[in-house]
């Protein structure tokens, strides 16, 4: 087993439908017995970030934004800057989620600029990458992941990778109930690590955490967590359910 700390993030997306329901989720986590070896991050919608941060009493649980813009200020209606997130005391931001890439047309270059700005502001980044079903079926998985990462590699120095956690999330597995097999996930994680070794350094390749995301639940988490190159999970749907605790404890 590697020295990389196991990491489990809960991406709440645009859920739940009210702040009181969001606080109920936090209450469950506050009371739970969480594996102290797991780094735990929850990511509520923007307007809930501050009240949820205040509601978290278990200091093991960190709070992350789901997005940040690459400019610090100006005429960018609707955007939130990385420095505003940092000033609010939030340590992490998720960038490059496939929903942002697909629905909001974020290109690899935009994701890279956002990553640059987030690191400049002092945030840590959960950087999402992953292929569509058509890309997997045409054998392009490694190439797509490399292209997504290469835009970021161009923007950051080797020593900054310690502030990035990569989340490999095959688009076909997100919210679909179709989880990648442990072999498919492990194989892509190995490819991503090999790319980091080639494009950055072997130290960065061995130290960067690579999470798997895509229909992770309590039933499949243990097998996935036992894979050599799977360092944790980014969890969508199941992070809104009590089974999130089992996922946090998948290596216990
Ligand atoms: C996600 O949104 O990052 C995700 C992995 O979603 P789900 O777990 O619901 O597939």
From TrEMBL:
Any one cellular component term from GO for this entry? cytosol
Keyword Nucleotide-binding recorded: no
- From the UniProt record, list the reaction(s) this protein catalyses: D-glyceraldehyde 3-phosphate = dihydroxyacetone phosphate
Q: What SUPFAM superfamilies does the database record attribute to this sequence?
A: Triosephosphate isomerase (TIM) (SSF51351)
**Gene3D superfamilies, from UniProt?**
Aldolase class I (3.20.20.70)
Q: Keyword Isomerase, does the record have it?
A: yes
- UniProt xrefs under InterPro entries: Aldolase_TIM, TIM_sf, TrioseP_Isoase_bac/euk, Triosephosphate_isomerase, Triosephosphate_isomerase_AS
State the Gene Ontology BP annotations.
gluconeogenesis; glyceraldehyde-3-phosphate biosynthetic process; glycerol catabolic process; glycolytic process
* EC number, UniProt record: 5.3.1.1
Q: Which UniProt keywords apply?
A: Gluconeogenesis, Glycolysis, Isomerase
Q: Which GO terms describe its molecular function?
A: triose-phosphate isomerase activity
Q: In which pathway does it act?
A: Carbohydrate degradation; glycolysis; D-glyceraldehyde 3-phosphate from glycerone phosphate: step 1/1; Carbohydrate biosynthesis; gluconeogenesis
- Tell me how this protein assembles: Homodimer.
Name the family the entry cites: Belongs to the triosephosphate isomerase family.
Designated name of the protein: Triosephosphate isomerase
- Taxonomically, what lineage is the organism? Eukaryota, Fungi, Dikarya, Basidiomycota, Agaricomycotina
